[in-house]
Amino acid sequence: MDSTLYPHHPASAHLDHLESHSVFVLREIAGECDRPVLLFSGGKDSAVLCHLAQKAFYPSPIPFPLLQVDTGHNFPEVLEFRDVRAKELDCELIVASVQEAIDKGLVKDPGEGESRNRLQSAVLLDVIARQGFDACIGGARRDEDKARAKERVVSLRSRFGQWEPRHQRPELWSIYYGKVNPGEHLRVFPLSDWTELDIWLYIQREQIELPNIYYAHRRLVLERDGMLLAHSPYLTARAGEKVFEETVRFRTVGDMTCTAAIRSRAMTPAEVIEEIMTFQVSERGASRADDRFSEAAMEERKREGYF
């Protein structure tokens, strides 16, 4: 049943509850923190987060900038969407470049065809320190990964950007404490309790625009380790691999070298929702080569300061 046609359907009430809590978190952080920033990759979760921020502060503009850590290997469709959306929102867009960090010697280039996702940690921590951000608002959800399932809604990070379990604050009765000591900062996840299905139901209900790669399209791909990866200047076929055209879509977006597509005919949010109802693997587990083969991958990135 379509909850957009039946506003009193339980699915609509569930989305209202999720929306209300997320808006509450955004307002609390804006009120308690001195310099928050919204992490905006251009993906579906950050698009929903921006939509929620618009609702939270309407009729005023969103009171904090947007930040993306650009690996240099991002999907061009996503970068175009990022720029257009930031302009529509009339928000300052800060782009922290992994390539610039490589050029300056801050991080080491992993080499041709290798993922740069792990390099984002040092680049993110660098821009947080330079800009003086005391809260980074992200679109991470607990259903994505075991490491994320342990996160608080408001997660304290140390002077070194690390997540330390014993130092996390209780969040009884949805009470969140936004103050930090000098050098510390918060990671804030207003979508923690949302699932992939919730995200798409909300996208359908609110008619939220997304990069077109989230819907079925024809693309040149290659198959590697059982995954369909986009053929691009950053990822070319190895010996024995073939490049072929396939109808695919992406469940998540990231570095083109490690973000896999799925075969799909879903052209609308409603059709995507029908697909999701049959999935048994999270989008990160099915679509991220750097997370798929190591249960500790995200835990390691948390220790390094990324999530």
CATH 4th-level superfamily of the largest domain: HUPs
Residue ranges: pLDDT <50 for 5 or more in a row?
none
Strand order of the largest sheet: 3-2-1-4-6-5
The dominant shape is: globular
Write the H/E string, N to C: HEHEHEHHEHEEHEEEEHHHH
Provide structural commentary.
The protein is an alpha/beta fold and about 300 residues long. It folds into two domains: about 10-200 and about 295-305, Rossmann fold; about 210-290, no CATH class. It is built from eleven helices and ten strands. It has helices at about 10-30, 45-55, 75-90, 100-105, 120-130, 145-150, 195-205, 270-275, 285, 290, 295-305, and strands at about 35-40, 65-70, 95, 135, 155, 185-190, 215-225, 225-230, 245-250, 260-265. The strands form two sheets. It has a six-stranded mixed β-sheet, sandwiched between helices. A four-stranded antiparallel beta barrel has the order 7-8-10-9. Strand 7 and strand 8 form a beta hairpin. Helix 1 (about 10-30) crosses helix 2 and helix 7 packs antiparallel against helix 8. It is globular and about 55 Å long. The model has no long low-confidence stretch (mean pLDDT about 90).
